[in-house]
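Re: the request from the purification team.
They wanted to know what the chain is likely to look like in 3D before they choose a buffer screen. I agreed to run a prediction and write the result into the notebook, where they can find it.
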Amino acid sequence: MNTIQELIKDIKNGKMIILMDDEDRENEGDLVVAATNITPEILNFMTLHARGLICLTLMPEKCEQLGLNLMVNKNTAQLETNFTVSIDAARGITTGISAYDRYKTIIDAVNVHAKPEDLAMPGHIFPLMAKAGGVLSRAGHTEAGCDIAHLAGLTAAAVIVEIMNQDGSMARRDDLIKFAKKHDLKIGTIADLIQYRIQHEQTISEVSQSTFATQWGNFKVKTFKDSINNTQHLAFYHGEITPDKACLVRVQFTNFLRELHGIEANDNYWTAQRALKTIATNDCGVLVVLNANESASIDELNLTSKKSQYA
């Protein structure tokens, strides 16, 4: 196996790599090349040696730019791969199926200034819409293709194709390693790509800080935004928090506004109110509220809190 750094270097240099997913998922390997580095020769190699379906991975905003709608409204595929309508270049091709024609279609589609009018539908290239957040949202080849191209400093789009054996069966791990050696290709896993992104990216950032009034006193509150799924998280803290002092911590998913009114409270359930009250009676503590999107405004929370206190 090669490192993700080695894979990124080859992608940047216009080479193909092989990416494998988990054995309990598709258990397949795809040839991957950055879409901006595609050539007719690479497409011909994919057709001759990989034999799978050649697809173009695109980010959602790029699909929107090109006017590409999903192939179906309700995706019932096992792994929910987001196929859009297929495409050809609107100009400069013949039937659309030759290696050159498919190259031209891909290059036209990933052009930074591309418009819906530059494409004809349906066609012979199959775009796949990646999930926002890439492999940190979905561990598929679609997302991996976009991620590896982006990490190489290129447009977040890739051409991918499943690798099949000569007898028509799908190439598995041992087959893929032999394929990589035969064609002098780097090979790695989507699992390693996920780990690489986790180690090298900061996906949570602080966006605001304020004071939150409760019947047990004021709490400082920080709002954090998750860039992967565009959710936000809240941290309510009381007292001085230092590395050398034990501190109460409560982490929960919650409908904060609902709990602030005391709804669903019982002796066996730690509501936000109960957590804040307990923290307030100690030297220090933190309540972390995950996915608190309905609590977007701290001013609104303060207003709701006051209404709850005086109801």
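For the purification team: The first helix runs from residue 4 to 12.
Please add any questions underneath this entry.
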